[in-house]
Write a structure and sequence with these properties.
Elements: H1 16-30, H2 33-85, H3 93-104, E1 109-115, E2 118-122, E3 132-134, E4 138-140, E5 149-156, H4 158-193, H5 195-205, H6 226-273, H7 278-309, E6 320-321, H8 322-332, H9 334-340, E7 343-347, E8 351-352, H10 356-373, E9 379-387, E10 390-398, H11 431-441, E11 446-451, E12 454-461
Helix pairs in contact: 1-5, 2-4, 6-7, 7-11, 8-10, 10-11
Length: about 475
Amino acid sequence: MAEGLSPATDIVAVPPEGRAQAVTAHAQGTGSIQAALSRWFAAQALIGLSLVCVAIYAVTAWSFQVKQASEFERQSELIKHLIQESRDDPGRDGLRHKLDDFFSTHAEISLVLRSGDEIIYSSAPARTSGRWVWMPMQEQPMPSGDAAMQLQLGIDVREDAKILARLAWTLVGAVVLGSAVISLTGALLVHRGMQPLKKLVQQTAATGPEHPGRRIDPAPYASEITPWVAQFNAVLDRAEQAYQQLESFNADVAHELRTPLANLIGMVEVELARPRSIEELRDALLSALEEARRVSAIVIDMLFLSKADRGTVARRSAPVSLADQVRTVLDFHEAMLEDTGLRVHVSGDARIGIDAGLVRRALSNLLSNASRYATPGSTIAVVIDTQPDGIWIKVANRGEPVAAEVLPNLFKRFFRAERSRTDSSEHHGLGLAIVAAIARMHGGQTRATSRSGVTEISFSIAPES
């Protein structure tokens, strides 16, 4: 039973300020949430504003292109109209004169007019430093039968380019300044938002075994943090309960082992105080052996409970009959039952995979407990009942009722219903605790009831998954 047990671990109490420093050091070692969130705010602001500004620039540039296309179309229609008005001018002088007049007031427009390979008119760009965009060549048919004319317009888009350049620099400045402002305000908001967590760290550091009953009030915290606070308070509850159980367990162990060890030491000292015959020494050794076996039984039971508390799962065999297991245990208790005039009635049955040795041990403990408190000559009922949550094995005896406040404690270690420990030489209060451990190892539960003079103690076995 002792194999596989982990060695005892020393528990060192850490003061609150030490825990707070440890938490701070750990946070610094793994990175700051506040710094990470601030960086993400800055990156999000930079990317978001950049995308918005790029979209603004693209829409503006597209709008200028639409305006330029519209200007090309409008100017092209005007020039075509001039050409139509001059269709009867064989020398084209009138057309050239009209075009000169037109372009004298439209320095931002340039024209190349061809008829076949001949350049009829060409207006040199008035702005040599401009930025010109030329439209594709267009043909203008002539109704008089002359060859069609090809015209090509150019527009100076220098002003549009300047506006786009200023817009680009403005947008870049807006991205930089906006990102800086959003990053700064985001860092401040994150710092402010992290204050409850820092307060929670301080309150957490101020709790622990040295402050029993102290809990963290979840009311001041946001709804996202409240579940964490509730879980932490629940952990504190379990930790305090574990400390209390540990203290109680240590006290009970010391009490249970002190008596047999004191008896053993006293007996040996008495026997060594004066010469003894062989028979007397033999009786003394038998008594010492009995006390040593009692200590050994307590230690073995404690090791078994420790193993069960670590979450050990029972090794299940092929399905067996639970009624057969009960009858096997009854054969072992037959002599004890006859001495007390008790009868046992078994009802129900079920087949399920179990650790037969453990289940028989639990049944033996329940029958011993029932025989101990049953009215002499009465009947002990063993019922095997299949329910949705598992198969329940119930052992009921008629006798003195058990107080309601005592029932929840029956499965605790070293608990005895009687105040006195006059029978502690035979019963050391671990029988029902072992039953509860075996039930847990089979995925089951335990239950105890006492009504109308009938006390029923039961445990369940969960179906195999």
